[in-house]
């Protein structure tokens, strides 16, 4: 997680640096495309100012169809200067579209070092404000046209002002990076809280679930019932052996009229299987 956070911070820092450098390069490229000087002494002659401003407005007022016609004419004549001017106007029509507002009163006319006049007119399009610039040579009638983004205030800025502006942009970039890092940290912390909440919810569900009914233990096998002792046979004489012996002796003596004292008594025991009963 820490490695991911570091990579995200490095990527955001690189993006900020690239965006700042791209802004500077694009600004310099646009300024470098202007083929004539724009800074000079403000013109105080009202007639000259009005004439140059009206000339610039007439060129800006040409429609796309009119510019196409003029482009075909100047290309056939071989006038490279006029061809470049018409091409610049036509490209602006294609790229920016129709102007939404023109700050005619805010137009500035300067006389540059080579004696030519440059008029700068702020024009607002759908994509923002554009500086429409026309350079006019009053002696030859040679004209050049250029478009640049922005208000042009950076042209007169000193090195200190430019460094101050660069510091402001850098501060904004670093602030953006830190804000994004804070947001990423909060998101990571939220992930941890979500994980803990889900884990606690799972534990609660496990606790609230009813415990399964215990499986009853198998009943112990019944003890073997001892077999009942065989019942005594019906009519079996259960008298003691001595009594039986006396009884038999008395009976014999009575039958033979012999005194019981002269008899020899032998013990008679009962057989276990009692075969005589079955026979």
TrEMBL record:
Keywords assigned: Cell membrane, Membrane, Signal, Transmembrane, Transmembrane helix
Protein known as: OadG family protein
Gene Ontology CC annotation, any one: plasma membrane
Transmembrane segments annotated in the record for this chain: 168-195
GO molecular function: sodium ion transmembrane transporter activity
Cell location: Cell membrane
UniProt main location, coarse: membrane
Signal peptide region: 1-28
Bias-annotated ranges (Pro residues): 211-229
Lineage: Bacteria, Bacillati, Bacillota, Clostridia, Lachnospirales
Biological processes annotated in GO: sodium ion export across plasma membrane
InterPro entries: Na_pump_deCOase
Residues covered by region (Disordered): 204-232
């Amino acid at each position: 997680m820490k490695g991911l956070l570091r990579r995200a911070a490095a990527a955001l820092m690189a993006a900020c640096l690239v965006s700042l450098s791209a802004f500077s390069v694009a600004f310099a490229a646009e300024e470098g495309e202007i083929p004539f000087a724009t800074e000079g002494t403000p013109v105080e002659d009202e007639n000259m100012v009005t004439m140059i401003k009206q000339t610039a407005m007439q060129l800006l007022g040409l429609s796309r169809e009119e510019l196409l016609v003029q482009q075909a004419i100047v290309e056939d004549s071989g006038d490279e200067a006029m061809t470049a001017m018409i091409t610049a106007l036509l490209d602006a029509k294609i790229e920016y579209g129709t102007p939404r507002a023109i700050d005619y009163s805010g137009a500035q006319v300067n006389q540059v070092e080579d004696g030519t006049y440059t008029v700068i007119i702020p024009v607002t399009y759908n994509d923002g404000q554009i500086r429409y610039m026309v350079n006019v040579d009053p002696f030859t009638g040679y004209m050049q046209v250029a478009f640049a983004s922005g208000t042009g205030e950076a042209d007169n800025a000193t090195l200190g002002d430019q460094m101050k502006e660069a510091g402001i942009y850098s501060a904004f970039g670093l602030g953006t990076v830190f804000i994004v890092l804070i947001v990423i940290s909060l998101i990571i912390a939220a992930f941890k809280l979500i994980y803990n909440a889900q884990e606690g919810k799972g534990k609660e569900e496990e606790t609230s679930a009813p415990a399964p009914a215990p499986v009853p233990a198998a009943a112990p096998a019944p003890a073997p019932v001892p077999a009942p002792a065989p019942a005594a046979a019906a009519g079996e004489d259960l008298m003691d052996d001595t009594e039986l012996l006396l009884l038999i002796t008395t009976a014999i003596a009575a039958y033979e009229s012999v005194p019981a004292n002269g008899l020899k008594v032998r013990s008679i025991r009962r057989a276990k299987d009692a075969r005589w009963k079955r026979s």
